[in-house]
Specification:
This protein is α/β, with parallel strands linked by helices and 217 residues long. The chain has 8 helices and 8 strands, in the order E-H-E-H-H-H-E-H-E-H-E-E-E-H-E-H. Bound molecules: BIS(adenosine)-5'-pentaphosphate. BIS(adenosine)-5'-pentaphosphate binds next to helix 1, helix 2, helix 3, helix 6 and strand 6.
């Protein structure tokens, strides 16, 4: 299956991607994870994007489009893909379609996780991430079994620097201005599947699987 996951910061894109990866074995490509890895390794790209990521702004289109082109050229996504955090602008959406048309791997569905601002703030201020494997936790909804230690790999758990309330509000504004039009773009193509992401994770997953079943996905 070939999917893009859309929705505001904290809607649960990464969490859903983890579920779909286990359930349907679809490769997960998160531009946010790729950028944070570059920052962690202090590469020239990591240094270039740090100011955008940590302030909640968008990294320039040409930088992320290049990352996605690399992913598609090395065969990692031959059997399907799940793009998380990309595309985020109309320019990115159109460039992605151009790349996928050449590869004959068009998007099947754009899954839109629709979540409200109070829910997003509660989720992101309580989110914790594994520094090694990027597994996602929440201090109340989904705490690690041992405080500060990842259940999956034993790695160190940390809080993303952009998960503070001020930066979350900036990210939400950036989302409304730049990414909302991408939702209209996929809706116009008849590919949009909307899910109420204010619901708990299990309900979100079940509702999405029902949509896939009803559409033969
Ligand atoms: P990115 O990493 O993509 O961040 P984001 O879009 O802001 O999304 P998040 O990762 O914050 O949230 P999520 O929806 O994945 O939620 P999660 O599943 O973790 O991007 C970061 C930055 O990189 C951007 O600001 C930008 O600077 C740059 N960037 C990335 N891509 C770019 C691009 N294409 N162009 C330009 N710049 C780009 O869940 C959140 C929390 O809620 C977790 O604690 C989880 O346990 C909990 N939770 C999830 N779902 C539920 C549920 N249903 N019920 C209860 N709790 C839940």
């Amino acid at each position: 299956m070939r999917l893009v996951l859309l929705g505001p910061p904290g809607a649960g894109k990464g969490t859903l991607a983890g579920f779909l990866n286990k359930e349907l074995d679809i490769p997960h490509v998160s531009t946010g994870d790729i950028l944070r890895e570059e920052m962690k390794n202090n590469t020239p790209l990591g240094q270039e994007v740090k100011k955008y990521v940590e302030s909640g702004g968008l990294v320039p289109d040409e930088v992320v489009i290049k990352l996605i082109k690399n992913k598609f050229s090395n065969g990692e996504v031959d059997k399907g893909y799940m793009l998380d955090g990309f595309p985020r602008t109309e320019v990115q959406a159109k460039d992605l379609d151009a790349i996928l048309t050449i590869l004959d791997k068009p998007v099947d569905y754009a899954v839109y996780l629709d979540a409200s601002l109070p829910v997003v703030i509660e989720r992101l201020t309580g989110r914790r991430i594994c520094r090694s494997c990027s597994a996602i936790f929440h201090i109340k909804n989904n705490p690690p079994k041992k405080e500060g230690v990842c259940d999956e790999c034993g790695g160190e758990i940390y809080q993303r620097p952009d998960d503070n309330e001020e930066t979350i509000r900036t990210r939400m504004d950036v989302y409304l201005e730049n990414t909302k039009p991408v939702i209209d773009y996929y809706n116009a193509q008849g590919k949009l599947k909307k899910v109420d992401a204010d619901k708990d994770s299990q309900e979100v997953q079940e509702n999405l699987m029902k949509i896939f079943d009803s559409t033969g996905g």
